[in-house]
Amino acid sequence: MMLSRSRFWSLLVTGLVVTGIVAGNALADEGHDHGGSKSEQKIAKTLASLSPADRQAAEAQRFCPMMVRTRLGADGKPIKVNINGQTVFVCCKGCVEDAKEDGQATLKMAKKLTKASANIAKLGPRDRAAAEAQKYCAVQTDSMLGIMGPPVKVRVNGKTAFLCCGGCRAKAQSNPQATLANVEKLKKAEKGHGHGHDHGHKHNH
Ligand SMILES: [Zn+2]
Ligand SMILES: [Zn+2]
Asked: What is the DSSP string of 112-158?
């Protein structure tokens, strides 16, 4: 009787200690920021469900060619589409048919996004998030940031704006109001969700 009673207590104490350790670890993990917001974590988790090669390709492309402001992985598992033997990723099922409809334009946009993503990644993490939210140049608003090299960061009336290239700097500074109005407009477009085509426009400098 005595033995089993003491064993009971020892098991109970062990149980409490183990529970305490597990709970402590969970709390420690939660308090630890492994870089990025909740949405970034969700995207990382979704992309982790792809095969290593697909994941790498989706991470490089980073955005959907049909919904250029939608991150791959933000709308569920990205869908792999084969166009003329080349692979592109789209954000959702709804984009598959659109992507195939004008395959050449889709491939072109996917390449553009991959290049832009690589150049934007050269910025620091905070600038990267800001440039991705703006997406297009504050002067040439149809010119995607990162397409002409790393986006150029400028301060206009104490605020930050991103430009597609150094050639847009003088224009951005000569009309601060227009530049900042464009930044606001571009950032608001980020929130809009709806399927539509976004064909790249030629940038003339
Ligand atoms: Zn989609
Ligand atoms: Zn430019």
From this structure: HHHHHHHHHTTS-HHHHHHHHHH-B-SSSTTSBTTBTBSPEEEEETT
